[in-house]
Design a protein that fits this description.
The protein is built from eleven helices and seven strands. The protein is an alpha/beta fold. 49% of the residues lie in helices and 12% in strands. A four-stranded parallel sheet has the order 5-4-6-7. The protein has a three-stranded parallel sheet with strand order 2-1-3, sandwiched between helices.
Length: 234
């Protein structure tokens, strides 16, 4: 029995579109009818997750649950969220929906463990960094996490918020971002975890030639497989 995939989207819209495209590209299909049935709720009313975690901003859980319920009512069998920071609220969402919710960060940690990586550079929002959610998952697998220094983290946040979320990729200081990445490689990072779903867009648009683990891609492939469709060998 094939399953219907529901995307809790809007965090942000381009990241949602990126996940949907990756689901399509990850499916080994020859015709329209061979692709998964996907329902997308691009709920841009979901409050900013980093602001909620670090600054006492509006709780995103009610809107996240609203999307989960909307997708369930529409016929979804499994839920996925293209937002790393939103996974800090994962347990709260699971308590309020009967549907399984794939955990993008755990899937990414499993992927890194399978590939034998010893040290990764973590690129993420301030919210994800401060929760330590990736560090907790990866340290248990013997993987060292290298984070940007303070100026480097500000560059990453600017690329996410001033660049992709603002629809202004020209605002990204690519040279400065490269300096941050190079410094992390010098500290031993073997690849970069794109721990914010806007970052695959940054890396693609800015043509940053660094080895990466892309949680959006990993989630897309897991969703295709969970839904009962063959995953295309990349």
């Amino acid at each position: 029995m094939k399953k219907i995939i529901g995307i809790i989207g809007g965090m942000g819209p381009l990241a949602t579109a990126d996940l949907f495209e990756k689901i399509i590209r990850a499916t080994d299909a020859a015709r329209d009818q061979d692709f998964p049935h996907v329902i997308v709720d691009c709920n841009t009313d979901i409050p900013d997750r980093t602001a909620a975690i670090l600054m006492g901003g509006e709780d995103p859980v009610p809107q996240l649950v609203r999307s989960a319920n909307t997708l369930a009512a529409a016929g979804a069998d499994v839920l996925i969220m293209p937002c790393n920071t939103a996974h800090w609220f994962y347990d709260d969402i699971c308590l309020r929906t009967h549907l399984p919710v794939l955990h993008m960060l755990r899937l990414t940690a499993d992927h890194l463990e399978r590939t034998g990586v010893n040290a990764v550079g973590l690129l993420a929002t301030d919210g994800t960094i401060q929760t330590g959610i990736y560090e907790n998952l990866l340290s248990g697998r013997g993987i060292r996490v290298i984070k940007p220094d303070a100026p480097g983290q500000r560059r990453v946040m600017s690329a996410i918020y001033d660049g992709v979320k603002a629809g202004n990729l020209g605002a990204i200081d690519v040279a400065a971002l490269r300096c941050t990445l190079d410094a992390m490689i010098a500290q031993g990072a073997e690849c970069f975890v794109l721990g914010c779903t806007e970052l695959p867009i940054v890396f693609a648009q800015c043509e940053l030639p660094y080895p990466v683990a892309d949680p959006t891609q990993i989630l897309a492939e897991a969703a295709v497989s969970f839904a009962g469709y063959p995953v295309k060998k990349m």
